[in-house]
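ingest -> validate -> predict -> emit
validate: passed (alphabet ok, no gaps, 404 aa)
predict: started
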Amino acid sequence: MGLASLGSANRAFAQPLPEGAGKQLVEAHCSSCHATNRISSSLGYSQSDWQALIATMLDLSDNPNQAKITGYLAEHFPPSTQRNPKLPQGEITVDFKEWAVPTLGQRSRDPIEAPDGSIWWAGQWGNIIGRIDPQTGDMREYTLPAGAKPHSVTHDSQGNIWYTGNKNGTVGMLNPETGKITEHKMPDPNAKDPHTAIFDSEGVLWFTLQHSNMIGRLNPKTEKIKLVTMPTKNARPYGIKIDKNGTPWVACNGSNCLVKVDPNSMTLREYPLPDNNTTVRRLDIADDGMIWYVNSGRGRLGRFNPQTGEVKEWPSPSGASSHPYAIAVIGDAVWYNESGMRPDALVRFDRQTEAFQSWPIPTGTGDERIYSGIVRHMRPTRDGNLLIHQSATNRIILVTPQSH
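emit:
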């Protein structure tokens, strides 16, 4: 979701915690950053695992009440199997390589590989964007202008890093060589929440504004921004990708549609998808032009043929409540995650055999491994690997598939 107002979101999604010793401590330390429903909707953990999870969010090592906090959480929110994903097996193995980013509680997300091979991410709650050198593991974070709260990052062909200022209605550019940040304010006060952005081959930046119900275009050469409103009220444009002809396609998170954007006039054409309960977080476009999407509302993977209008969907392994979220097409495989499950499952769909295979997405290794958070965006690397994240534990993750 976007971060229009963290405080109001916390109030909207707050849920009463059960009575017990430590309740007030948990409310004081946890709900100051996020809503209490994030606790009740979690996988549930042992006391030691709650301690490991909390350590990725804030430092309680010197807090004399740490044991009371983790004890309360372990008693009232112990490990649960109620939302375990179904994990079909297959012939592919995957390696998860993690980087724990420096600033605690920043909710790192949306990693992308830049032209020089570095990996960039958005630390939305920390108001930062960051860079990883995957060869050395060195990391650097850049503080953004006050209130930006970046939702995502992308890069242009020159290696500049662009972010969407989800809270202050801006799109910004960071020059990694100088550290200079340039902000572009939205020309319409109703355009409040730039969301996901992508460049086309002409160097024009396209972006969605979910709750503002708009799509935007920024020409960096002229610095002009044009905005158009979605035809359907509350369609909530979310993911956006560019096809091989330079045409943007947009996913509707509030309605059962995909939207084609004329790159010159910005005229919008909606393509309705089956079932009114269909909602689409994100989409991707295969090399044959087929548009693959996650049907988040119905727990399905979908394929749309833009030439014929044909739609085909497959039930996700974990069913209707699995809430598929992020998606990326790499060769013959469609990758996505089941964000409604605990743990969050990484799913691979073979486009040729139509077979599924899934893995739980971890944080940590060995006895310190826990499962927490959801993937909200995933993108391929030039080597055909996959970049994902676990924002609840401040992890950026490189997934390397291997076939046998």
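The two ends are 38 Å apart (CA to CA).
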